[in-house]
Amino acid sequence: MDNNYFRYTNQKCPVCGETFKGDDDIVVCPMCGTPHHRDCYKKNGECKNTDRHNEGFFWEPEGIEQSEQPFSPFENKAEQQSRTENPEPFRPQTENSGNNTGNPFFGGQAVQDPFSLFPKEIDNEVSTEEAASFVRVNAFKYLRNFFYAKSNRKTWNWAAFFFAPYWFFYRKMYKLGVIFMSLLIVVVAICSVQSPYIKYQRESLALSEKYSTMGTASSAEMYEDEKALIKENPVGAALSLMPQAVLIIIGIIAGIKGNKWYYDQTVKNVRQIKSETEDPNLRKLNIYKKGGTSMSAAVLSALAYFAVNMALGLLI
User: Is the dihedral of CA 40, 41, 42, 45 positive or negative?
Assistant: First the structure.
């Protein structure tokens, strides 16, 4: 038997105070790792240590020597399976999984609810279920990050880093998308009207055309000519790299702040919909429709940026 099994033996359920036994059905809080009897967790409605989550609390077993590696409730599935007798709550279901029928956010019954271990509310007047329905795509991952962001713990969003500013349009954060896209376009426009930039771009284009017609020219010769071009016009070379530098900076900002901004967006929209709609079923529908993603908005924003670059290039 895996040694991790003994992590829960001789430990007590924080709700009922009973010591866990080998055949107990145990579930683990995804925020802090506290184990509970499944029935006790459902009866309590949330983790017994929910009030301590904002303090960065993580459960540790009593009377057992700590391992070198700190425990995280978000380890891979193989490790998670060794920590609990029943790891199903961490396994997101699809419409064709087992006897799963219907969308759990619309009253359908699912065999396993992957969000059942989160606290009931993600914020005042906003339930975790409502937030998950709003996020839709990768909801489990974002809910985890939302609870981290709520407790001011640092998170990182790789999608926002690689695809900003288009990621904001994809996640329907249009205001932030327009702000960052406008900043990028302004930088491109300012650089494009500078004489050193125009000169460098024209000479660089001429150099590319020259070597495209000289099949026998070596890459070393082209490299030397490019070095000479940069040395002759360093300001123009720097200006040509400025948009890429700004894009990287935007990506870093989005990677650091993206989850927090998306959390704020989710809570704000759900609250607004709930304040404007009295019918519970209509609320669910509006939350679902208002949230989700928009690939068309992301593609259109990318095309708009490409069109601006093309127009400025023709002016040069």
Answer: positive
